[in-house]
Amino acid sequence: MRIHSAVRLLDEAAARFADRCAVEDETASLTYAQYRDTARKIGAGLLAAGAVRRPVVVYLPKSARALCVFLGAQYAGCPYAPVDAHIPMARLDKIIDSLRPGCIVTDGTLAPNLEGLDLRGAKVCLYDSLAASAVDGERLDAAAGAVNDADPIYIMYTSGSTGTPKGVTIPHRGILDYADWVVKTFGFTEETVMAGQAPFYFDNSTFDIYGSIRCGGKLVLIPDALVLYPLRLPQFLAEKEITAIFWVPTVLINIANSGALEGADLPALRTVAFCGEVMPNKQLNVWRRALPGRTFANLYGPTEITDVCCYYIVDREFADSEPLPIGKACENMRVLILREDGTEAAAGEQGELCVLGSGVALGYWNAPELTARAFCPNPANRAWGERMYRTGDLAFWDGDGLLQFCGRRDNQIKLKGNRIELGELETAAMCVEGVENAAAVFDKERERIVLFVETQGTLPLRRFNLELKKHIPQYMLPGQLVPMEKLPHTPNDKIDRQALKAKLDGEGSEHV
Ligand code: AMP
């Protein structure tokens, strides 16, 4: 049977590289044969649990086990939705409400957190019992075979400006094309060893997961605690003989600043790719000097595209003040820079970066209006309704025909590599007793969010953040809280964010 689902990448790798190590975490290591067999057992268990064609929430720590569930869901013909093991329950509740999943896969440690949550009919499945399922090969093959490459492979929740996370839905063909592109562009083979830094609920992880399966390489998951210690990461790369990394710039910056690259001996490391935020040349140059002759690549893409749609292989030295291009479109992808009236901007003229091609998401799960706003027909080609994603990013084509990124046109920010809609924080703040209105401003210079709150009483920051943590992840918390009697407004009655920005670090505020 011809399989159109991306799970065929695992079948192919298991057929060619059965005994080679596929994935390693702190506690386990799986060969490709074991990876496929475990995933098939999980697929069979999910089918038995009735998860036919319905989303499977993966509520597990970042681990080889979670990977087996991602692939297992595909064998069962279901899309998977990874969520953070530390997710606040109020946020998980919103995700379950949006998803209406068939199953939630978790473990004995996390399962008690689900008690008291309205699971909207979803069945809770424990990993260990799924992984012990008996496989009815014919039934499983039929389930995987019924999937079309335009069907969803995963749904990844990203910050939503109205306070509700948005479920970006990616099709199988997006992953199939992306995995091909990754392997071809970076010349990966079965000798490739990747070190997976990105959390699984962040789409950068698809580079590691599917890039490594596509080439039959090994994926080593970096223990979460280690990512916080930049001084120890180069040592980890050396010990594990890592050949390729695809990390968020914040981590690379921390390593460069820590001095850990001085004298580091990393002969195996050939590829250093990064994505998710601006990589400053100052720290990039520290890396390039420490690792001469290696490939450095600036990749660009929002969650709404299968990870990446543009790339630039760094081919020269950049001065600290020069912009680092995001380059050109990947294969199967196309980029347009559009003016507000939908016409194409001229070279050098700034406009909105819009993306077309096989990696474009199907839309936001169960949110047709949001989808229609962000995914629209290419205005230059309405004839057959070519779908385009409007990123909200501003960019222009430079004199060398390369794309230059110029920031956002809205209130979305990146803080330490995490995508945050300030509106989501503001909505959570309004849930705190005593808060009548809230407006968040990003203090770029000090790398923190400042939250202005309209309140009559006093609100100690730590207690306030404890309340917020019930609704939003740790990385969205404000670093400074400014209580005000009344937020300033513009003449047309919008909150005056410019006036708030002018107040940054004013008096009467609290810092963490
Ligand atoms: P996310 O959905 O978390 O992947 O975040 C996507 C956003 O991150 C993009 O819309 C950009 O604003 C920003 N971004 C991603 N890659 C880059 C890059 N290489 N340089 C600058 N900004 C980036």
Structure summarized in a few sentences:
Strand 24 (437-443) and strand 25 form a beta hairpin. Helices cover 29% and strands 25% of the residues.
Question: What topology does this entry show?
Answer:
Blueprint: H1 8-16, E1 21-24, E2 29-31, H2 32-48, E3 56-59, H3 64-75, E4 80-83, H4 89-99, E5 103-106, E6 123-126, H5 127-130, H6 137-145, E7 152-158, E8 166-171, H7 172-186, E9 193-196, H8 205-215, E10 218-221, H9 224-227, H10 233-239, E11 244-247, H11 249-258, E12 271-275, H12 281-290, E13 295-300, E14 310-313, E15 328-329, E16 333-338, E17 351-357, E18 363-364, H13 368-374, E19 375-377, E20 387-397, E21 403-408, E22 412-415, E23 418-421, H14 422-430, E24 437-443, E25 448-454, H15 461-468, E26 480-484, H16 497-502, E27 510-511
Parallel strand pairs: 1-10, 3-4, 3-5, 5-6, 9-10, 9-11, 11-12, 12-13, 25-26
Antiparallel strand pairs: 1-2, 7-8, 8-18, 13-14, 14-15, 16-17, 17-20, 19-20, 20-21, 22-23, 24-25, 26-27
Helix pairs in contact: 1-2, 1-8, 2-3, 2-6, 7-8, 11-12
This protein binds adenosine monophosphate.
Adenosine monophosphate (AMP) binds next to strand 13, strand 20 and strand 21.
Descriptive notes:
This protein has 512 residues and is α/β, with parallel strands linked by helices. It is 29% helix and 25% strand. Strands 2-1-10-9-11-12-13-14-15 form a 9-stranded mixed β-sheet. Strands 16, 17, 19, 20 and 21 form a 5-stranded antiparallel β-sheet that branches. The protein has a 4-stranded parallel β-sheet with strand order 4-3-5-6. Strand 1 (21-24) and strand 2 form a beta hairpin. Helix 2 (32-48) packs across helix 6, helix 7 (172-186) packs across helix 8 (205-215) and helix 11 crosses helix 12 (281-290). The longest helix is centred in the N-terminal third of the chain and has 17 residues, at 32-48. The radius of gyration is 23 Å and the shape is globular. The structure holds adenosine monophosphate. Adenosine monophosphate binds at residues 158, 203, 275-278, 298-300, 302-303, 326, 391, 393, 405, 408, 414, 419.
